[in-house]
Amino acid sequence: MTPLLTDRAQLLAQLDNAQEFDLAIIGGGATGLGVAVDAAVRGLKVVLLEAHDFAKGTSSRSTKLVHGGVRYLAQGHLPLVWEALRERQHLLSNAPHLVHPLPFVMPAYRRTDQLFYGLGLKLYDLLAGPARLGPTRLLSYTETLLALPGVRVTNLVGGVQYWDAQFDDARLALSLARTAASHGALLINHMPVTGLMTDYPAGRIKGLSCQDSETGQERKLKARCVVNATGVWVDQIEAMLHSQPGNASEAKLPLAVRPSQGVHLVVDASFWPGSSALLVPHSQDGRVLFAVPWQGKVLLGTTDTPRPQVDWEPKALESEIDQILQEAAKYLVKVPLRSDVISVWAGLRPLARSDENSNEQGATHNVSREHTVKVASNGLVSVTGGKWTTYRAMAADVMQSIRKAQLISLTSEDVTLHTKLWGAPVFNPEYGQGPPKDGVCALGTVSPYGSDAELLASLPGAEQGLATLPSTQLSEAMVRFAARYEYARTVEDVLARRNRLLFLDASAALAAAPQVAQILSTETGVSPQLAAFEALAKSYQMP
Fold first, then answer.
1. How crowded is residue 312: how many other Cβ atoms within 10 Å of its Cβ?
2. 259, CA 20 to 30 Å: which among 247, 307, 349, 517?
3. pTM of this prediction?
4. Every domain of the chain and the residues it spans
5. For the domain with range 20-58+171-256+366-404, which CATH number is right: 3.40.50.10240, 3.40.50.150, 3.50.50.60, 2.20.25.530?
């Protein structure tokens, strides 16, 4: 398919010309974009508005894993694990350019631990069934060292190897946005929703108001149904109804989200050589420790800290940084210090509050990652909880909740099981194998641009890397492509989410920013907000 241009003037003209939408979605993260794809595939007239940029919040700050959830298995959440393993398979099939299998190894320092975790991961395989990516194996001492060349060997007796998958979360979000657009949806970023419109005196939702961040122009949109898919901000959107007539009862509802902060530290690949990821399922404080190779660097994490306040750019606590470094020092031969961290970032998980724990303030690592969909009496549909792996199932549940509430006439069919995401290449052996056969797993080598790689190569500057970077990491053409086809408007949009340099190396992102700003200015004709990005990038450096 020919990529759709994302000229903002044309998108806004479409918005202004629309009389009414079937579905208006607030929030351009994994959940909102998934709903947009599902609704657009059904043929509905869809608009999605994102206050900042697609995947700006939680959806770009994951551990980059598409997984069933070994920790959830240990907690007994078998239905959640079963669902996630099947959704993992759908992602591997529908987005092979962005998702690939990844081997994990748990080092064992006691024989009983090796047998215990080996047995549990055999259950993981059984739950996956035909969607299994490779067999769980008990590794000898020597096999463990070959798989984990950077692991500490003192008291090591062996390990357990199993398989999950890895992805680029922000680029998958962009693929979802472009998939929805290819099916007729209208998606606009940098367009915060400022209010919800209701009819009087019934108080039913009939649309929303929004404001263009670039021009300040305000608009009002009519919609038959409004979906609140704003993650940790879901309560703030619902609070917009407080001043609406006839909604006093809704204003008294308890908060729906319990935010939990996850922090990641990025270090050079020399701290964790090899292609396997490390998983310690039970660190000293009961959380999981990861060391995951990703785009030539290594992610160390993650924390699970309750946070009462939500921010667009949450900050890592000193205690969280120290905790990750201290835990990593127990397992890595080359011990990372604070001075070795080249980027540090945090994300807020939108954990759904249950009726029983709606006022809890304690630890969140045992709180379920299952999602909830609520249809309020005024017709507002809000979705909370969940995780990246199950975004498609969450979107399907939202659509079925809309159907059951008779907000829009829909079929009960699950329409996106086999919907290929934008950029998914036609199968070719050079792309590597997709989901493995007979337990044999191979990593793919396809470009993250997938079927757009040829178009990218045709743009000016395809062979010209930015002055501070090789062309393979970020070329001039990649910046142009981001502006023309991927909705990018600012330096942050490019260096944080179209390219992941900010998350991989904050100092390198700072050095590249001026040239990116220059190219963006030429492409968009608006300010690329260079100074704002430079301030942001400094906050990703180790304090």
1. 12
2. 247
3. 0.93
4. 20-58+171-256+366-404, 98-168+258-349, 459-539
5. 3.50.50.60
